[in-house]
Amino acid sequence: MMITKLLKNTIEDLFANGKGILAMDESTPTCDKRFSSNGIPQTLEMRRNYRELLATTPGLNESIGGAILYDETIRQQTKDGEPIASVLMNAGIIPGIKVDLGAKDLAGFPNEKITEGLDGLRERLAEYKSLGARFAKWRAVITIGDGIPTRTCIDANAHALARYAALCQEAGLVPIVEPEVLMDGNHSMQRCYDVTEHALKALFDQLYFFHVDLEGIILKPNMVLAGKDSKEKNSIEEVAQATVNCFLSSVPAAVPAIAFLSGGQSPQQASQHLNAINKDYKERLPWIVAFSFARAIQQPCLEAWKGQSSNLEAAQKLLYHRAKLSAAARRGEYKLAMEDHG
Q1: What angle do CA 161, 163, 167 make, to 5 degrees?
Q2: Which residues are within 8 A (CB) of 313 and not within 5 positions of it... i.e. 6 or more apart?
Q3: Strands 288-293 vs 20-23: parallel, antiparallel or unpaired
Q4: 178, 180, 197, 324: which is the annotated catalytic residue?
Q5: CA 265, 268, 271, 277: dihedral to nearest 10 degrees?
Q6: CB-count burial class (<10 Å; 0-12, 13-18, 19+) for 25
Q7: Are 295 and 264 in contact (CB under 8 A)?
């Protein structure tokens, strides 16, 4: 019971006052790729500078209740020698940690992935907790294509997510479970709906089998969208309605919070869709519906920074503004006109 209360308190703190989560847990290859496309040197020092920029943004705690860190980041210090996790905690932002070791090819199943990282996880969780983490994240990757996803891929990833979640709760950390159905491809919105529903139902079956307390987890899913190469153009209202219907049919009301990923949507799209879900369906939703965005909060900031210390203040202002807009969308108060007031 003590563990359950601890987990619930962490979840309440993360989402208090209309806040959400900043995902700043890009792996080194992903971070380097984003740096490369913005002409930023791909070095350890640059990654540290960037993460310090994010963590020290003035006023970030007005919209952000938690930040997901990468292994490298939770061990790093600012230029002044303060651990980045401490900087966040002192600002009232709860540090979390990405604990999976990435999506690898699923043997025997071409074009499908399985996330690895269960070996030694119990010990790693204990260490991360000692470094200040109060929650963790594990991402499963599900691709839509010809004949995929297979049931094997969905079930294998659901099983891994459940084992991870059970270990987190044992350690007193809130597990963020992330079964991401990718936007890549030319599939229809209906196909995304069907695959997302299948993935969520498989996930909650496994969480039940592994005795995971649903009141002590956060679900981090994709929205229901047509593939980004699809000719299908869905309105904001259609995306919100499909997403809400899919989740009402597959996510138990015991789950306290859903924190959507942006998944390659533009910052504006992610905010518009989240806003419509909260504005139009508030009365029907048994969960907090918030955000755990990475690119949809970071992208404008990264493009403005370009690795130059002279751009630091301008970049932080963009991050602050984007986080504010995400929080407004969580409350159902976002309007496109707000984009211009950064």
Answers
A1: 115
A2: none
A3: parallel
A4: 178
A5: -80
A6: buried
A7: yes
What CA dihedral angle connects 60, 256, 276 and 187, to 10 degrees? Answer: 110
Q: What is the pTM of this model?
A: 0.97
Catalytic residue among 19, 113, 220, 324: 220
Which domains, ranges and CATH numbers included, belong to the chain?
Answer: 2-332 (3.20.20.70)
Shortest CA distance to 216 belongs to which of 6, 27, 64?
6
Contact between 278 and 332 under an 8 Å Cβ cutoff? The reply is yes
- 50, 305 contact by CB (below 8 A): yes
| Residue 3 parent element (H or E) | helix 2-15
Task: Report percent pLDDT > 90 for the chain.
Answer: 98
Q: Which amino acid is at 244?
A: V
Based on the number of CB atoms within 10 Å of its own CB, is 231 exposed (0-12), middle (13-18) or buried (19 or more)? Answer: exposed
Residues 6 or more apart whose CB falls under 8 angstroms from that of 332 comprise 275, 278, 279, 280, 282
Concatenated DSSP letters of 146-208: TTBS-HHHHHHHHHHHHHHHHHHHHHT-EEEEEEEE---SS--HHHHHHHHHHHHHHHHHHHH
Q: Which tens digits make up the pLDDT trace of 291-318?
A: 999 999 999 999 999 999 999 999 999 9
* 82 labelled catalytic: no
> Which string of DSSP letters, residue by residue, matches 11-54?
HHHHHGGG-EEEE----HHHHHHHHHHTT----HHHHHHHHHHH
Taking each helix axis as running N to C, give the angle between helix 236-248 and helix 189-209, from 0 to 180 degrees, rounded to the nearest 10: 30
Average pLDDT over residues 10-21: 98
Model confidence at 341, pLDDT cuts 50, 70, 90, reads: low
- Is residue 180 part of the annotated active site? The answer reads no
At 173-191, the pLDDT tens digits run 999 999 999 999 999 999 9
Q: What are 100-103's contacts with CB under 8 Å, separation 24+?
A: 100/137, 100/138, 100/139, 100/164, 102/27, 103/139, 103/140, 103/141
What is the pLDDT at residue 44? 95
